[in-house]
Description:
Mean pLDDT: 79
Number of helices: 21
Structural class: alpha+beta
Strand content: 15-25%
Largest sheet: 6 strands, antiparallel
CATH architecture of the largest domain: 2-Layer Sandwich
Number of strands: 18
CATH superfamily of the largest domain: Histidine kinase-like ATPase, C-terminal domain
Strand order of the largest sheet: 7-6-11-10-9-8
CATH class of the largest domain: Alpha Beta
Helix content: 40-55%
Amino acid sequence: xxxxxxxxxxxxxxxxxxxxxxxxxxxxxxxxxxxxxxxxxxxxxxxxxxxxxxxxxxxxxxxxxxxxxxxxxxxxxxxxxxxxxxxxxxxxxxxxxxxxxxxxxxxxxxxxxxxxxxxxxxxxxxxxxxxxxxxxxxxxxxxxxxxxxxxxxxxxxxxxxxxxxxxxxxxxxxxxxxxxxxxxxxxxxxxxxxxxxxxxxxxxxxxxxxxxxxxxxxxxxxxxxxxxxxxxxxxxxxxxxxxxxxxxxxxxxxxxxxxxxxxxxxxxxxxxxxxxxxxxxxxxxxxxxxxxxxxxxxxxxxxxxxxxxxxxxxxxxxxxxxxxxxxxxxxxxxxxxxxxxxxxxxxxxxxxxxxxxxxxxxxxxxxxxxxxxxxxxxxxxxxxxxxxxxxxxxxxxxxxxxxxxxxxxxxxxxxxxxxxxxxxxxxxxxxxxxxxxxxxxxxxxxxxxxxxxxxxxxxxxxxxxxxxxxxxxxxxxxxxxxxxxxxxxxxxxxxxxxxxxxxxxxxxxxxxxxxxxxxxxxxxxxxxxxxxxxxxxxxxxxxxxxxxxxxxxxxxxxxxxxxxxxxxxxxxxxxxxxxxxxxxxxxxxxxxxxxxxxxxxxxxxxxxxxxxxxxxxxxxxxxxxxxxxxxxxxxxxxxxxxxxxxxxx
Length: 649
């Protein structure tokens, strides 16, 4: 008895069969095609793929630890043999299709050769190849014996009349497919690989003057010819190598849509194509009539408050425009070289011309347009495809939304005031304290001057100098606070600025100092040399302020309960494509049931009267909607929270 396969080798054999399924299919198809078997077998590749999968299945189902050599025994019952399943199944199929036992056994020899080739081509040593070949040889023997046993059993069971049953079944299938094609009301034409018509349904026969009776072409004595122009089109398609084609064709003053599909056949029996015709004359007439109506076009174009332009996409020309288009984009209409407007995405990048814009836009999208007088103008764009005189056009409508954007900015500015206002409430007290210190210093200075003789001694002069220097520091502190506040405010403008986010973060920390300093120590880790972010400073400033104020509230609540200081940490990181900000605290944390709601507008966990619930909602809107960034958080109730914001450059 041959030595069984080691478990590791069995696993590799199974893996090779699984990984190289497509290779096996192509290989057996090559053998079958070269020897002429494909003429008598299924034309679709899926049938061959299924045969390889079924042939592999018993081997794949065998545990790798039990790959003994399946020997043959004189009294074996192959109906109960799992390795003979494929042969039994194929025997039944062969009887149904009329394939002889000789034809099957001949083809199966090439199956065996294909699996032998696999062992040579895919990394087995000579010794491993011999062992695997012995196993597969016995496996294929089982398949063949199962086939013979089933086939001969059927031969005895069915007798000589079985061939007639197969013939009747094939005739019935042919009638079914012919009936299906004849039932379709659209003209259908089947051609061989040379372009000659081999079949057309009743609709196609009637179309070319052969009468309308199901089966006319299949059984009729006279078969109509297709038009020479159409015949030339079919031949051109078959020679082109294309898989399909869809185009319009004019025949006897009617317009038809012709769809041609190459047959998905691997056997070589049906190497032609199938064509289907659809009459689209009425549809085209309706489109042309509607498009060429001057009153309709005038009402459509001039009645629009935005710039409207009709573009001929086939010729690359502007065919119509309204007065607003001339006003907004004069050089678009005149076409002066080098001065045509460009259109950008909302980041001010990726410029395109008006024809590229029309292809990109579907409906209601925002872009930035380059204008002669107003610089970059925000616009809302609509693109509608229309047909004029059987040519494809685009109706491009562009609205100036500068005022709308200004209103959005003003709304954001008003929301920004809510956060700034909370900080501003503490400014009078802080500024008053600084003023009192300055006043005290001045009082001391006056008293020192009165007590001194005309020439002060060194001690009095030193004391006076120290007091004056202290006053200067207080004034600097006050100036720093006011400068920080100014850095996160911006005039009502649409222009973004290049902002050093590290400086902005430091200013926000300074502005909120009285909110967190009594309750927490602050750890600051800002990565040096970061790329400036192009943004609106008030928006990014408001985002940072809200995150710090949230952390300050969380640590205050916990510090008041525990009577000890907590911690807040703020860090920045600059990657290739984005700036990252992390704000973490050891405060009261967020309850799990509130996770899904913290970014909802109006939701707050603070006491009534302390918050409107728009802080984190506004942060989310700025980061995600305005700057296409991301915001994430993780929190443990009673332990603290960490927010991570990433703003793309």
